[in-house]
Amino acid sequence: MAGKEVLQMTKTNVMRLLDAAKIPYRAEEYAVDENDLNGMHAAEGIGMPPEQIFKTLVAKGERGGYAVFCIPVCCELDLKKAAKAAGDKNMELVAVKELLGLTGYIRGGCSPIGMKKRFRTVVDASAETFDTIIFSAGKIGAQVELAPADLAELVGCTFAPITKRNR
What string of DSSP letters covers the chain? Predict the structure, then answer.
């Protein structure tokens, strides 16, 4: 990662927050297909392995309120592992229609950085195997790449195994 590469791209709030925190990142854009907001489409669009591209999911716990989970786009969240990592008994994903009001982001553009409120955030432990990970820059079609440790410093996330095993 050679530093910041934000040439013609309009800066998102996520990028502004990273700039303000003096955290190095690389921004990427890809062509958006409104009929395919799947994270695998984003991985193909920027030519990176899906294991290194993370999607951001929001869930509500039985006792602890809301939590944010970041997992590779090729994986599925294990709600039992997620609940344990968040210190709750059970977790249930929030409905897409609740996302904007809760986080300030829409489906396909949800980022762990810059939500309306700071929520407990857990990133899948696989992120720590990469020098950098990629996730939404806060709008559909825009991604940011940065070191997992820098993400942890900015949002106070923890790392835990929270995905289901691939069969």
Answer: --S---SSSPPPHHHHHHHHTT---EEEE----TT---HHHHHHHHT--TTTBEEEEEEEESSS-EEEEEEETTS-B-HHHHHHHTT-S-EEEPPHHHHHHHHS--TT---SSS-SS--EEEEEGGGGGSS-EEEE-SSTTEEEEE-HHHHHHHH--EEE--BPPP-
Q: Whole-model pTM?
A: 0.90
Q: What is the pLDDT of residues 41-85, one digit of tens each?
A: 777 788 899 999 999 999 999 887 999 999 999 999 999 999 999
Query: Mind listing the pLDDT tens digit for each residue in 95-114?
Result: 999 999 999 999 889 999 99
